[in-house]
Automatic annotation (TrEMBL):
PROSITE patterns cross-referenced by the UniProt entry: GLYCOSYL_HYDROL_F17
Originating species: Clitoria ternatea
Pfam families hit by this protein: Glyco_hydro_17, X8
PANTHER family (UniProt xref): GLUCAN ENDO-1,3-BETA-GLUCOSIDASE BG1-RELATED-RELATED (PTHR32227)
Localization per record: Cell membrane
Coiled coil: none
Protein's recorded name: glucan endo-1,3-beta-D-glucosidase
Record-stated family: Belongs to the glycosyl hydrolase 17 family.
Span list, region Disordered: 377-397
Gene3D superfamilies: 1.20.58.1040, Glycosidases
Enzymatic reactions: Hydrolysis of (1->3)-beta-D-glucosidic linkages in (1->3)-beta-D-glucans
GO biological process: carbohydrate metabolic process; defense response
Length: 497
């Protein structure tokens, strides 16, 4: 999967200064082109950034009350979601996504793996009927061959790699192998150990028969490993040992890995890095990961500790901010995170515990189960249920709970790197024209004297001066919108200039 890359604040300011220096040293004839390029760069800085990872969603249909696929396409567009993952190749669904601009991951179910592994003509026919007949109008970008095969009670593991190779060979016959990737989602249960994170390793019985051949295939074809990661399961089963704040991306002391000394501030990063560590242990650390499923249920049985709407909103909302911040994991800080949330709808016909039917971000009526941002510049459009709003504002300092009356403020993302925050602060107070006098030494908003507090004030000043225009609270992924007025110490954040 190739994700778009754009200019980000990480290197915009150095490039800006380089261009200014070049302008001073260049001949008069070069002034106009450089001025145009400088204008383009400044425009890019204030535009929404797509370089900081990707958020998609899983569209399951184990329900009898869901909206029609064409309505689902409209819903995804309205929410700014441009990636969706399916669990089959339903004709009506694939037709609905044609010419929608939404990228689609489709799936070959586990029950087809045996035939796909043993009969090339089967995969030829399957690819023709389910892929080539819809592509490129429907932007199929990947095929998930099976799902969590290693825990399939029908023991389909032995067919997995051969099936993946045959599907890829069939794609090649239709000249689609360079455009459509092949992978297979694995659950964290494929790991023998995951704590401490640096000791992550795959189950010994899987390594030689399937893990190494699969990773070798992914490396050869330039694909990635799909991983289903659910901090909810780890927390629910070990709530006496795992901090809820740690699981929900909230403020917490963090966990230091005793093996490599890295500090983890959330369980999600620790789980993903455990998979990276396991891949490194078998010498496939050059293969990327896409998180094919992750989520938190809004309801559960009495023994499903942590299930509920507030926690679901906190986990999914803070995860989206984390992904769109541009930060990777502690082990792979420069590798963007790409995730598919689970799931689009609550599905009333799923079996198992109550949680299984309550992972949706939306009810079948298309009403939101709870409010979370789904894009870099989105803020909740209405007041969320009690308690959720405060959990959606991961800024240090005291955040007022006064009603905002529809107002929005721009604040710094505390998870962003110091470099990004400083570059954003420098831009806002410099070329951006923000009013930064109140955060100078001795001024009313100098205290607390922290980078996050000063950046938040500067970001908000710039955002308000730009009339809260779309894209003016991005700062390369280090800024985001809140609907409650931020307050650091005695500093009031203005709403207009």
């Amino acid at each position: 999967m190739t994700f778009p890359e754009t200019i980000t604040a990480t290197f915009l300011l150095p490039l800006f200064h380089m261009l200014c220096f070049s302008k001073e040293q260049s001949m008069a004839s070069a002034m106009a082109p450089l001025s145009f390029l400088l204008f383009f760069i400044l425009l890019s800085f204030s535009a929404p950034s797509s370089a900081a990872g990707s958020v998609g969603i899983n569209y399951g249909r184990v329900a009898n009350d869901l909206p029609t696929p064409d309505k689902v396409v409209e819903l995804l567009k309205a929410q700014g979601l441009n990636r969706v993952k399916l669990y089959d190749t339903d004709k009506t669904v694939l037709t609905a996504f044609a010419n929608s601009g939404i990228k689609v991951v489709v799936a070959m179910p586990n029950e087809l793996l045996s035939a796909a592994a043993t009969d090339q003509s089967f995969t030829d026919a399957w690819v023709q009927a389910n892929i080539s007949n819809y592509y490129p109008a429907t932007q199929i970008e990947a095929i998930a061959v099976g799902n969590e095969v290693f825990v399939d009670p029908n023991n389909t593991t032995k067919f997995l790699v051969a099936a993946m190779k045959n599907v890829h060979a069939s794609l090649a016959k239709y000249k689609l192998d360079t455009n459509i990737k092949i992978s297979s989602p694995v659950a964290l249960s494929a790991l023998q150990t995951s704590y401490p994170t640096s000791s992550g390793s795959f189950k010994a019985e899987l390594v030689e028969p399937v893990i190494k051949p699969m990773l070798g295939f992914l490396r050869q074809t330039g694909s990635y490993l799909m991983v289903n990661a659910y901090p909810f399961f780890a927390y629910s089963g070990n709530s006496n040992q795992i901090s809820l704040d740690y699981a929900l991306f909230k403020e917490n002391p963090g966990v230091v890995d005793s093996g490599n000394g890295l500090k983890y501030m959330n369980l999600f990063d620790a789980q993903i890095d455990a998979v990276f560590a396991a891949m490194s242990a078998v010498q496939y650390d050059d293969v990327d990961i896409v998180v094919s499923e992750t989520g938190w249920p809004s309801a559960g049985d009495s023994n499903e500790i942590g299930a509920g709407p507030d926690n679901a909103a906190s986990y999914n909302g803070n995860l989206v901010r984390h992904v769109l911040s541009g930060n990777g994991t502690p082990l792979r800080p420069k590798t963007e995170l790409n995730v598919f949330l689970f799931a689009l709808f609550n599905e009333n016909q799923k079996s198992g515990p109550t949680s299984e039917r309550n992972y949706g971000l939306f009810y079948p009526s298309e009403k939101k189960v709870y409010e979370i941002p789904l894009t870099a510049n989105e803020a909740p459009s209405s007041s969320p249920p009690s308690g959720v709003g405060k959990s959606q504002v991961p800024v240090s300092g005291n955040v007022s709970t006064a009603a905002s009356g529809g107002q929005t403020w721009c604040v710094a993302n505390g998870e962003a790197s110091k470099e990004k925050l400083q570059e954003g602060l420098d831009y806002a107070c410099g070329e951006g024209g923000a009013d930064c006098a109140p955060i100078q030494p001795g001024a009313t908003c100098y205290n607390p004297n922290t980078l996050e507090a000063h950046a938040s004030y500067a970001f908000n000043s710039y955002y308000q001066k730009q009339s809260r225009a779309s894209g003016t609270c991005n700062f390369g992924g280090s800024g985001f919108l809140v609907t409650q007025p931020p307050k650091y110490g005695n500093c009031e954040f203005p709403t207009r200039y």
